[in-house]
Amino acid sequence: MPNYKKLNGKIETLTIDKPGNDHDLRWINIVDAGRKEIDYLRKNFGFNIDHLKASVANAFSQRPMVAEEEGYLFLILHFPTFFKGKVIAGEIEFFISHGYLVVLHNDNIPALVDFFDKAKKDQNGLLSYGTESSSTLLYEILDRLLQSCYTLIDNNSLEIEVVENLIFDKNQKEAVEKILNLRRNIINIRKIMQNHKSILQKLLTMKSTLVPAEELKVQYGRLIEHSKRIWEMLDNQKEMVDVLNDTNESLLNDRMNNIMKTLTLFSVIVFPLTLMAGIFGMNAKYMPFVNSRFGFWMILAIMALGSWFMLGYFKKKKWLD
């Protein structure tokens, strides 16, 4: 790979150079940027110090942003990624100008890592190979990152099917945990993606000396459509999870009501037994049946009659159904 260089453990460069063109495009990929990597960018490119500070690996921006500086465009974007069983935000910083694209990110964004690895092996497959335009390369990266969102959404859809089966198989307790995980993931993806549309619309105004403005508008227009479609799918999934949660709660409440009904009926049926036992447990001098030869059995019969009377009453009222 003659066009690929690894400057240190964290900085990689890929030169996209189509034979016959009098210019080329450098893709500088930096993972987990630290002090050395920031110094490298400051010395070689002279970026704004505030933008460089925001690009350090341990700095996390609370919102995406676009800033136009003299000679380059600075972007901060967040994309959802699956990490340790939950969806988290992966932050990516872009410095874009004529002839280069600097991308800084953590190693928890597999879609970006995979795309760079494929580009190293075969840059001819890149759309930007034909134009050698940093704007086109940025479009390809953003397109790949948005495509990765569909995988997360598909995983949510599969989990929704699992939850639906659990609910109607009467496994409500297991369904509760999965519903909570689904809700958390959907909320996190929505929170991460909510500003993408406005950021992408700002990129529609980008200009390139290598790619016609109309072509760039078509490319970034596709990204906006992806963003809209992803948001609509998340809305649908949110509604489905809310419906499943309501259904699950209804079944749980019905189950709890049946349990309470059973316990209540049991306590009321036992009430005559407890009452008779309490009455005949008093040490009154003249208690009926106490001195009778069959007194014990007569008391038991009265208790049984009381319980059977309560059962008959409940059955007549259809409270046992």
Keywords:
Beta Polymerase, domain 2; 321 residues; Methane Monooxygenase Hydroxylase, Chain G, domain 1; alpha+beta; seven-stranded mixed β-sheet; 59% helix
Question: What would your notes on this structure say?
Answer:
- The protein has 321 residues and is of the alpha+beta class.
- It folds into two domains: 4-251, CorA soluble domain-like (Beta Polymerase, domain 2, 2-Layer Sandwich), CATH 3.30.460; 261-316, Methane Monooxygenase Hydroxylase, Chain G, domain 1, CATH 1.20.58.
- It contains nine helices and seven strands.
- The protein has a seven-stranded mixed β-sheet.
- A hairpin with a 2-residue loop joins strand 6 and strand 7.
- Helix 5 (134-168) runs parallel beside helix 8 (213-280), helix 7 (196-203) packs antiparallel against helix 8 and helix 8 (213-280) packs antiparallel against helix 9.
- The termini are far apart.
- The model has no long low-confidence stretch (mean pLDDT 85).
Q: Total number of helical segments?
A: 9
Topology as a string of helices (H) and strands (E): EEEHHEEEEHHHHHHH
CATH topology descriptor of the largest domain: Beta Polymerase, domain 2
Q: What's the N-to-C terminus distance?
A: 77 Å
Fourth CATH level, the homologous superfamily of the largest domain: CorA soluble domain-like
Radius of gyration: 35 Å
Number of strands: 7
Q: Beta-strand percentage?
A: 15-25%
The outline comes out as rod-shaped
The CATH architecture name of the largest domain reads: 2-Layer Sandwich
- Largest sheet at a glance? 7 strands, mixed
How does the helix and strand content classify structurally? Answer: alpha+beta
* CATH level-1 class of the largest domain: Alpha Beta
Q: What integer is the average pLDDT?
A: 85
Number of domains: 2
Percent in helix? 55-70%
Strand order of the largest sheet: 1-2-3-7-6-5-4
Sequence stretches where pLDDT stays below 50 over 5 or more residues: none
